[in-house]
Amino acid sequence: MALLIKDNCINCDMCDPECPNEAISFGAEIYEIDPNLCTECVGHYDKPTCQAVCPINNCIIVDPDNVETEQQLIDKFATIHA
């Protein structure tokens, strides 16, 4: 399950430096998360750090278009950091 930054993002830049997979970048108007790089911090932390530092409640959510099992996230982590 990759994460998704909703359009209520205020571009505070808190999430980008926290992402261990460098999945977050500034998009056309707001920050975006690359679902091919997002592992929801599986392999790094117990919880997604971007969600932890985001000052806007429910701004970063599970992306309904990119649902993955924990094993898929672990496999993606292994591939990214091979």
Automatic annotation (TrEMBL):
Pfam families: Fer4 (PF00037). InterPro entries: 4Fe4S_Fe-S-bd (IPR017896), 4Fe4S_Fe_S_CS (IPR017900), YfhL-like (IPR047927). It comes from the Bacteria. Keywords: Iron, Iron-sulfur, Metal-binding. The keyword Ribosomal protein does not apply. Residues 1-29 form the 4Fe-4S ferredoxin-type domain. This is Ferredoxin. It comes from Psychromonas marina.
